[in-house]
Amino acid sequence: MQITKLLGILLISSIFLTSCSNDDDNDVIVNPLQINNKQPLGTSANDLLSSVNFKSLTIEMVSVQGFEPTNNAVENFKSFLEQRLFKPDGITINQRSVASSNLNPFTNDEITQIENNTRTAFNVGDDITVYIYFADGSSVNDTETNVTLGTAYLNTSIVIYENTIRRLGNRPNGPTVTTIETAALNHEFAHLLGLVNIGTTLQSSHEDPGSRGHCNVEKCLMEASIEFGSGMMEMLGKGVPELDPLCIADLQANGGR
After folding, report:
1. Is 185 helix (H, G, I), strand (E, B) or coil?
2. In the chain, what are the helix, strand and coil shares in percent, each to the nearest 5?
3. In sequence order, what are the residues at sequence separation of 6 or more whose Cβ sits closer than 8 angstroms to the Cβ of residue 99?
4. Strands 157-161 and 150-154: what pairing?
5. Are 153 and 111 in contact (CB under 8 A)?
6. CA 196 to CA 206: how far, in whole Å?
7. Straight-line distance from the first to the last Cα atom of the chain, in angstroms, rounded to the nearest whole number
8. 175: Cβ–Cβ under 8 A, 6 or more apart, which residues?
9. Are 38 and 32 contacting, i.e. CB atoms less than 8 angstroms apart?
């Protein structure tokens, strides 16, 4: 799924819309030991939310050198996970940096190949793993008016376009890099958790009929289209958008908090 942002007139049209597209239907040949981490988006929602099959979560955060997320964003992200997941043996985030792939802008296939080349952590025993790559470029799908902040593309895989986030976060009077990073991480991981209606069953009718995988509740973290004028600026000024009660009810019904 992809988060989009309207440039020029400071309007984000579907800030969380394109960060959640179904770009996850890639045909990938993988090692049989890795197959459980190479499934369609949303299929590991219950495993991530509950402690039935996996009692701990390890996140492998791989960043291009010089494009690491801020410490505060990582801390905010971990707090978000602890609020929503049942992992009695804990949540671990391991960070490391890698050299640039020298690919920019990135296609979905290129991101998948980078994961194949750099991912080292896969499900073992009762520990489930998630891979998050912080890229030093942008998405090939970007236009003059819309840019992609991140994409959840497989059941345990996310890319964050850190270079794009930094360009936006350094604009005068805009949200900080930390705020945008946190919103992108939380939003994309919520898609791994099956929101909205992509692996976690709806408990009420709140899916946006015009945007699969998104919530129709105003100002929800999973809302597809959020105005990035004074309204969004004011909202981000008060903190990162949160999941609304309807999305939380969905997660709770699928084993989460």
Report:
1. helix
2. 30, 20, 50
3. 64, 65
4. antiparallel
5. yes
6. 8
7. 23
8. 168, 169, 233, 236, 237
9. no
Q: 232 burial class (0-12, 13-18, 19+ CB within 10 angstroms)? A: buried
> 40 preceded by cis ω (within 30°)?
no
User: Tokens 């964003």 identify what position?
Assistant: 73
* pLDDT tens digit sequence for 19-61: 444 444 444 456 777 999 999 999 999 999 999 999 999 999 9
Question: Mind listing the pLDDT tens digit for each residue in 15-27?
Answer: 333 444 444 444 4
Q: Give 26-34's long-range contacts (Cβ < 8 A, gap of 24+).
A: 26/108, 26/109, 26/112, 26/153, 26/154, 28/112, 28/116, 30/116, 33/122, 34/122
Residues recorded for the chain: 257
**CATH 3.40.390.10 describes domain 4-253:** yes
User: Measuring CA to CA, which residue among 137, 125, 106, 121 is closest to residue 59?
Assistant: 121
d(C-alpha 40, C-alpha 155), whole Å: 5
Q: How far apart, in whole angstroms, are the C-alpha atoms of residue 208 and residue 13?
A: 15
